């Protein structure tokens, strides 16, 4: 059932404030809340008790009463006391941006790990607010005696302890899941398969790019990831193996999308998930180039990645949705930037070429002479390397391949030294 709300935002001359309010409306709609009014204010500092001044509180109440809305949503994170004071004055539910995003994440989380991460973030958000509500109850009761205060504090401490215990239990389960992923990650590193990670703003088209790549370079249609034109459609990290026609292969990961003012608790909760990006050989920063605020979205993504210590990794900029951008030619490459349309599958071949240039630089052409009794070597090379020539001689098979460094080291004993010298010269 759709609820209605008034949106409230204040600015201290911040850049992209209008877009931030537009995004708040999108977040509300993603949570099945219909915005029916917007109130903004330009101020020098916030009000400690009610975030906005008394006059603005009166204006909000007047509009909320007139529109008969269900709640008021603020575009920033409010303190427990501010929410309590505002609800008392407005006589209506008050929600801040952090709670709104947490609710969306809770609704979207599908895997056990994502659900645990969101639960931890929500409990950490609620912890100080449980205390605040308790203090408010004491104040509202009008009983300031030591007995009443002591009893109230005891209950608050019990509530706080219960939440902390829940957080601890959830973190233990999360640690187990993280350990599993670390084992998988170490195995991938041992196999020396390059990792390419899709990052970017929510709804930029990361999952669409992944599905297009899987469709083009994998026969398993069930490996498609969930994609939908909505905020935070993907909360899990998906990993798919991509095998190119020349047998080169890499792992493509799709991570949770970013948004401005992403709650700190959520960033911390999803740190383990986003470690996939930190381990990547190259990042594909997917940008919705058709959006008028795409540069602000890029900045938010880069700031969030920096906060997660995802730094010093080569980046390919995939300017997606170019089909919806005005006066934009596509597919078109400019250095490490590609204008493309994943939906129309325009530019995917160029993107693959750009990935290849970044992650397969250690490939070299070598010729091997393999005895007939080592048919396992020939089978391996036919499956994992680009075979350029094969001939059969008296003492074995002569095979010319474009192979990665790990395979050249593995089969170094079979490499014809003169061709190796010729290739390296």
TrEMBL record:
It is found in: Cytoplasm. Residues 194-363 form the Hflx-type G domain. Signal peptide: none annotated. One of its GO terms (molecular function) is GTPase activity. Keywords: Cytoplasm, GTP-binding, Magnesium, Metal-binding, Nucleotide-binding. Its cofactor is Mg(2+). GTP binds at residues 200-207, 254-257, 320-323, 341-343. Transmembrane segments: none annotated. InterPro entries: G_HFLX_dom, GTP-bd, GTP-bd_M, GTPase_HflX, GTPase_HflX_N, GTPase_HflX_N_sf, P-loop_NTPase. Mg(2+) binds at residues 207, 234. One of its GO terms (cellular component) is cytoplasm. It holds the Pfam family GTP-bdg_M. CDD domains: HflX. It comes from the Bacteria. Residues 134-155 are annotated as: Disordered. Monomer. Associates with the 50S ribosomal subunit. Belongs to the TRAFAC class OBG-HflX-like GTPase superfamily. HflX GTPase family. GTPase that associates with the 50S ribosomal subunit and may have a role during protein synthesis or ribosome biogenesis. This is GTPase HflX. It comes from Listeria booriae. The gene is hflX.
């Amino acid at each position: 059932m759709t609820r209605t709300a008034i949106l409230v935002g204040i600015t201290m001359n911040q850049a992209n404030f209008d877009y931030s309010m537009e995004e708040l409306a999108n977040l509300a709609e993603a949570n099945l809340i219909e915005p029916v009014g917007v109130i903004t204010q330009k101020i020098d500092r916030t009000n400690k008790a009610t975030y906005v001044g008394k006059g603005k509180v009166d204006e909000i109440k007047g509009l909320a009463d007139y529109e008969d809305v269900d709640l008021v949503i603020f575009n920033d994170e409010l303190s427990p006391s501010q929410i309590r004071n505002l609800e008392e004055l407005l006589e209506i539910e008050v929600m801040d941006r952090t709670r709104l995003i947490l609710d969306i994440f809770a609704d979207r989380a599908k895997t056990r790990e994502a659900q645990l991460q969101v639960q931890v973030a929500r409990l950490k958000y609620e912890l100080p607010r449980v205390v605040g509500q308790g203090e408010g109850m004491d104040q509202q009761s009008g009983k300031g005696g030591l007995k009443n205060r002591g009893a109230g504090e005891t209950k608050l401490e019990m509530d706080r302890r219960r939440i902390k215990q829940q957080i601890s239990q959830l973190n233990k389960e999360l640690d187990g899941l993280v350990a599993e992923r670390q084992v998988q990650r170490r195995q991938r590193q041992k196999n020396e398969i390059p990792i390419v990670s899709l990052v970017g703003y929510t709804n930029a088209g990361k999952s669409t790019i992944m599905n297009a790549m899987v469709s083009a370079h994998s026969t398993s249609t069930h490996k498609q990831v969930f994609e939908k034109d909505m905020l935070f459609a993907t909360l899990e990290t998906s990993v798919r193996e991509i095998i190119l026609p020349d047998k080169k292969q890499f792992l493509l990961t799709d991570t949770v999308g970013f948004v401005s003012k992403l709650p700190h608790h959520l960033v911390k909760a999803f740190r383990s998930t986003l470690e996939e990006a930190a381990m990547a050989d190259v990042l594909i920063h997917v940008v919705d180039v058709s959006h008028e605020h795409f540069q602000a979205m890029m900045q938010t993504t880069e700031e969030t990645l920096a906060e997660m210590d995802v730094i010093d990794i080569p980046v390919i900029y995939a300017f997606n949705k170019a089909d919806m951008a005005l006066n934009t030619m596509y597919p078109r490459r400019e250095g490490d930037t590609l204008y493309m349309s994943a939906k129309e599958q325009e530019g995917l071949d160029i993107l693959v070429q750009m990935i290849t240039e970044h992650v397969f630089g250690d490939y070299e052409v070598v010729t091997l002479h393999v005895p007939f009794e080592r048919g396992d070597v020939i089978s391996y090379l036919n499956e994992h390397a680009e075979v350029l020539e094969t001939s059969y001689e008296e003492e074995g098979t002569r095979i010319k391949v474009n192979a990665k460094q790990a395979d050249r080291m593995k089969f170094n004993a079979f490499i014809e030294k003169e061709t190796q010298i010729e290739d390296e010269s």
